[in-house]
Design brief:
single chain, mainly beta, 15 helices, globular
Length: 1252
Amino acid sequence: MFEKKKFHELQRAWPGSQIKRYSGVPRRLNHQPYTYRMVVAIVLCLLACDQASAAGEWQSADGYRFKALTVSTNEPVGFTSLSPASTGIDFVNQLGKERYTTNQIYLNGAGVAAGDYDGDGMCDLFFCGLDSENKLYRNLGGWRFEDVSQKARVRGKNIATTGASFTDVNGNGRLDLVLNSLGQGTWVLLNDGQGSFQATRPLNPKGGGMSLALADVDQDGDLDLYVTNYRTVTVRDQPGIKLRGSTIDGKPQVMSINGMSLESANSVGRFTLTANGKILEHGQADRLYLNDGSGRFSPVSFTDGAFLDEDGQRLAKSPYDWGLSAMFRDMNRDGRPDLYVCNDFESPDRIWINQGKGVFRAIDRLAIRKSSHFSMGIDFADLNRDGLDEFIVVDMLSRQHVLRHTQLSNRKPPELYFGVYNDRPQYSYNTVYLNNGDGTYAEIGFHTNLAATEWSWSPVFMDVDLDGYDDFLVTTGHPLDMQDMDVTNKGEELKQQRKYSHRELLEMRFMFKPLVLRNLAFRNQGNLRFVEKSADWGFDLAGISHGMALADLDNDGDMDIAVNNFNETATVYRNNVPTPRIAVNLRGIPPNTQGVGARITVESEGLLQSQEIIDGGRYLSDDEAVRVFAASKQIQEINVAWPSGKVSTVAVISPNRLYEIHESGAGQAEKNEEIKITPFFKDVSHLLSHKHTEKAFDDFSRQQLLPRKLSQEGPGVAWLDWNGDGWDDIAVATGSGGRLGLFLSDGKGGFEKAPATSLDQVSPRDQACILGLNSNKNGLLMLQSNYEDGLAFGPALQLHRTTDTPKKLLNAGTVSYSTLCAADYDSDGDLDLFVGGRCRPGSYPSSVASVILRNDGGDFVNDNKHAALLSKAGSVSAAVWTDLLGDHHPELVLGCDPGLIRVYRNIAGSLREVTAELGLGDRVGFWNSITAGDFNGDGKMDLIAGNIGANSEYELYGKDGITWHHGDLSGGGVHEVFESYSEANSGKLLPIRNLPDTLRAIPFLRELYPSYAAYAKATSTNILGEQKNKLTTIRVTSLESVVMINRGDILDVTPLPLEVQLAPVFGISVADFDADGSEDLFLAQNFFGTRPDFPRMDAGQGLLLKGGGDGSFKSMTSAISGIRMTGEQRGSAVADFDHDGRVDLLAGQNAGETKLYVNALIQSGIRIYLSGQNGNPNGVGAKLRLGTETKLGPAREVRAGGGYRSQDAAIQVLSLGEDTPTRLQVTWPNGKITITEIVEGVTKITVREPTQ
């Protein structure tokens, strides 16, 4: 029943009209006289004709029309804020203090919508009001606007309007208005074509409506509606609320509120009671409405099959979320609109993939690895112009040091569960998602420099400077800085002093000061990096801004901006960009007359621009349905892919024109044959069915300020012929409490678990590294770490053999070891060992000693002559022996974390550090891994080093690096790490860790810094005081993973491709995977053992890099590589385990599945077996080069250990690509060279080391 009271409220809300009931829906009738409408129509026609002449006449073509744009070329790039006096736009979104004293939800603001409601060719603006009435401004041209709100009957008296969209809901070609409100419904106002609107019965009754979005979700041609609901009231505004609970089916549930049923209190789904009695408040369920084509909407249930979970099952209950905004976008390019919903607080964002016919399924759990905590708004754009859309979700992290340290209220680190990868934790910063092209996304917010944009609301990607790359704008601010921890604590303190009335408790919120912030603008530099341009572009208004809409308000073909401000006059920005452009709007076949959901692609040489037509989707706001593209380069073609499946193409393009493309002239899309890609690799991990064991260990209880965990660094992996049958077997290290994974090849391409030996015992400690030793003593070397227990007894390094009991080679002591590699460094014919020291348990990152164990006739003894040298190496994470100088003596190269890539020259068995001489003396980084290969084919060994990358929280702190002061910070004997960064302007060192974390390590600082604000204003020098002079300082300046090309006297360092930098690199494997004659790379990625408030680094899937043969590399997508690993990848190693002449891949994952990939390509290489002398039968240290009669290919060095604590197979696979090899050159460790002729068609070669 539509109650009489509610009926009268409708009449008051939309005065000047009648609302009648038809089919249960109230209808508003127009009362304007016919003669008045005639006059208005004539005037509008005259104005439109005059404006068309000024801007150029329409010219028609087949399927489209166009006209010239008048473009000013005298202005700099950026915006001009136009005064209300000049525009006539004087709207103020007013909200009285009393209103938000009792309901702070109103502080979420209101939006603005842009659209040509009267069809005169000029875009108009509609502003939503909370206490204010709404206002509609008709564009008169020349940057003058007329307030026609009363005439149009859109004021919404006494309705708190939040969000709005201009949209043609009934397909008659006129833009209607859809409005959201807080508690007063979602209103559909139908455009009568005479300058006014008719209200229909509201949807979403009692809903806390925020943003809205429209799209044709069921492919029936009309636009359906999604409404995000927040809530109309929260417990934060209801001190003294009384809840009554009961236990039903063993679960505690809230049954009534203040004596009212949940239904009566508009609180269904609002509360959850936990087992420990904690009360959780939830938002309201959103609403999806299907359009019948006439603008009448019917609700869709969340539980009747229209929404499915990740497993394809119907939802058991509606999601009760704190909805703020939603956007329809075809995320997977199947022609159907998908839906992203941004939710506040702990409510997870919902990503619904359209399955067709109006059915949505939750996106794969691993498609998005983490999300924002306070998700406000969203926008999509192709940021790197690869034809795939990225997107951003904005949150509340500040760019300012002081605010980062005071705004901590309501911020809780996510609860992470050990070994769980698909949990999608929430973090409070802007998340930016790079489209991987396979339905998954890599989160790259920190890399982009967009992670921190203050308390953000409305994000917008637009090409401000028209260089072809979308830039970024965002509105900011809040009436109350409700994250201020000092105010929060003061309020709690006051509550303990006496009992306050409910009103007094509500008024305590005004202890929080207004958070007045600048709006922000960032320029896209074309490399997924953005640089701030707010002031330069004139988009830096200081205030509190919410909704933002883009529109071409002066018909010059660029997007101007309208912003709805809180208790301040709305801002209108004129876009001044002088650069050539084209503008495109669409005329779709009714009922989708604006072509919502269509994708426009603009092609020019070396640049592919694309945008999608959306309706609503902005935070509380809606853009004009016009899209603008850069035209400095000659545009070759405009393509429109319509939601109907039809395609329009415009082939003759001139810059500075507006193109209106008509669906009526579109043709059917050509059915292109799908190109089937054969991936490099096929996942055969089921052959092992192995998962690495790792027990949870709390590193931070021992060192409160430890930057990251060291207990989650395994496993390393190894290929070795354990049983001597000529087939490569697999070993995977374990964590404490697990068993070594040892798998024997069955000689048929499969594996079986090895029979029980000493290696099958439960490991009391983490196995840091494993290595197959083939020397005068054979077996498997196992290096154990005492990092967790810290006990200086038991074995650190053991040699296991198939029959004997393990032989202890090195005792555990005060040093926790990390890595192991072998080579004949002293040229006596047998293999010696390097053992890397990681840290002293509880004292990371203090420098510790590493060890060389010299092979003395099968016995390993400490090489004391290098003890002093290696005591200064630092915290070693990885090591490799490689002959960099080409003198047949392997150099020792170490990756230190933190520290340098250290290189020790081998001079006839004596090591001397040459790090600085080779140009590496200032590259302090978090070097996880190191290995060597000939990447430019010159026969010299180059280096690859894995680092933390350029996509971690450290990116917040500028380009001057991170400074660690470590030692006894408090004088209490505990070793801690104090992290700082350099302030951009002053150079002062400022603390990274927040006050609570710092107080746990240095409790007495509470007296010096009694408040968050006091701590936020302190420098690191202030905080550390006199103790600073007693601490060791490390300044980390290199975060990127790099390739180092060997130029003979120096190593030429170059960052690896951008995709590499998006995640930490651990395992590194070098091989010619595609048999083209150039060395390729595989990189193992990700790290989850971060501090609770330091977002986990999970953007990697395991990355294959194709070598160019000149030292360059190109990243391969997972669709091409066939590799997709979602966990914490660690060690990796290569072998041709099935003897087919193609290199296969093994990778371990911490607390995850061990991954085995078989090479699936057609091209194969030659398997090469070396037979060396007794002390080095695998020829470790030898270099192999295939060649033709005129040239040699890249050198491959046989090694025992490298990369990240792992070992490749001894048998090498080499190829020359399209060239047919005629010879194999082997340079043996002693410098002797053998040349072996190759017969065409041969698939394997055995070469024996000469005895003379």
